[in-house]
Amino acid sequence: MTDIAWGIDTDLSAYERDGFLILRNVLPRDLVSRVVGELTALCALTGVDEGDLGLSCSRLDRENQEALYRLYLAAPRLPAFAALSAHLAGVAARISGADLPVLSIDTIALFSPPRDSRLAYNWHQENSYMPGLPGDVMTFWCPLLDPATVDNGAMSVLAASHRLGRLPYRKISRPRGYTDLLPHDAEAIAASHREHVCIADPGDAVVFQGNMLHRSNHNATNRTRVTGIFRYIAACDLPANLKFSADMY
Ligand SMILES: O=C(O)CCC(=O)C(=O)O
């Protein structure tokens, strides 16, 4: 099973086998609501308020991408976002199983506007973006506002692709400074692995290993999909550099 309810006796073995797990109801609902409330208040500071965060972000993407970018920068600094990160660190510690602390690498609010190609990522491995880290990065992907569906471009993963290890990649430049690190033979790998579209509700999380191939899909709705991304490593070493930034690759 890769799709399980989170609880004290949850069987986590599929994380090793398939490279990912869908954890149902792993986030406290009141905390997710607080994140949405704080994000909505932050978004209103841009002067755009459609009375709905998903529609406001879509309008910002059309009319003021600079303001949407500033919202993206500020969002992970919100107190409720930090509380979610602290909550998931406990889950990460349990999944990693090691008797060691877990380090938070970064926290991101991903805004995925309709009909967007700029913020939609092709197949990639998280580890490619973090070459300086000593261990495997564990990522939690959490729909925050609306359920993640096929229509709004929920993330896909390729089951068991983490077993391929770190793959060589090509850098593909995209508009406005974005870079894809596309593994060689990504399409052939996609054809030979089971693609799983991560349909999930706010409160659920998909947790996956650093070498798991995954990508965004096209958002065909009029609402921006809002996702929290939380990344951790087990502190198996004292890393020389915990920065995760574009200048590392
Ligand atoms: O939600 C998405 O669009 C995919 C996110 C993703 O690829 C990532 O966080 O690395």
From TrEMBL:
Q: Which SUPFAM superfamilies match?
A: Clavaminate synthase-like (SSF51197)
Q: Which InterPro entries match?
A: Phytyl_CoA_dOase-like
- Alphabetized GO MF terms: 2-oxoglutarate-dependent dioxygenase activity; iron ion binding
Task: List required co-factors.
Answer: Fe(2+)
What keyword terms does UniProt attach to this protein?
Plasmid
Keyword Cell membrane tagged: no
What name does this protein carry? Phytanoyl-CoA dioxygenase
Q: Look up and give the organism this protein is from.
A: Azospirillum thermophilum
